[in-house]
What does this fold into?
Amino acid sequence: TKAAVKATRRPAATAGTDIEEVSAMNNAVAAIVPVTVRAQRAFAHRPSEILAAYGDVRRRGRWQADPGEIFVVESHDFRVGGIDRFVYRSLHYPALAGTVRYERIDDEGIVYTRRLADPDGLTMVLSVVSWNLRSCSTGTEVTVVEHTTSLDGSAPIEGSEYRLKTLLDRLGFHLSSSR
It folds into this structure.
């Protein structure tokens, strides 16, 4: 699949027209997989506490990764226009380079774009993610919506809904244990 994705990134002027190359391009198009997942949780915490748990990279490191996953944050800039750079490792992917660019941060939530690339620098996954924070009488309702497109088939995004829900569960546990 990676070879097929590389074939689509060549400039049109140099792209050949032989049968094998056309087949590779068709396979690359078939490998594009979009998914939208949504998860919601209510927390007995103010929106500012949730933003603080997300915005502090050390605190986020305690609840962000699933067991068996590793996030190594290389740089962190939690402000509008800021960019986080990280390396992600799991049992399925030995090393993916990631970037997050913050588009909006305020009392109502966070919106960011995320890119994951393979060791050759080819984009594998693109996402637009929103964390919507709504104050309520018991604390804050958090709704996370993730629009993700995999350029490398369905494997990189399999289990996205489960991962998102368990991420919010780990955040809740972290918030409760840090009081």
